[in-house]
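Re: that chain you flagged

S.,

Sorry for the slow reply, it's been a week of failed gels. I finally had a moment to sit down with the sequence you sent. For the record, here it is as I used it:
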Amino acid sequence: QVQLVESGGGLVQAGGSLRLSCAASGIIFSINTEAWYRQAPGKQREFVAHITIGGTTNYADSVKGRFTISRDSAKNTVYLQMNSLKPEETAVYYCAVVVPTRPVYWGQGTQVTVSS
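Prediction finished late last night. Pasting the C-alpha cells below so you have them in one place:
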C-alpha cells in the first residue's frame, strides 16, 4: 500500500520561506517521478514542480527561481524548498507520484498560509 505523508506546512509572512517534506512508504521514490501540486481555495489543483528518475527538475513558471524540489533517496523523501513566498501562494500543497505521465498516488496535503 502506497502512502505519501506531507509535512512542513504552516503560517509564514510574505517573503518568508518554508520547506515541505513528503515521506513515502510502499513505493520507491528514486525509480519514479515525484511532483508537488497545490490547490488554493476555490481554484483547481495546479502543478508546482517535479523531479524525474534521473533528477531532472521542472517548475511552473510562477515559482521558477524561488522554489526548489529535491529528493533524498536514502530517506525516500522528496522536499520542496519555497522562498520568497507570496500571499497568493496560500494553498494546500500535495505530493504525488507520477506514473508514467500522470499523478497516480497522492498525499493528504499540507496547508501553507502566507500572510501579507
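What I noticed first: The longest strand covers residues 18-25.

Talk soon,
D.
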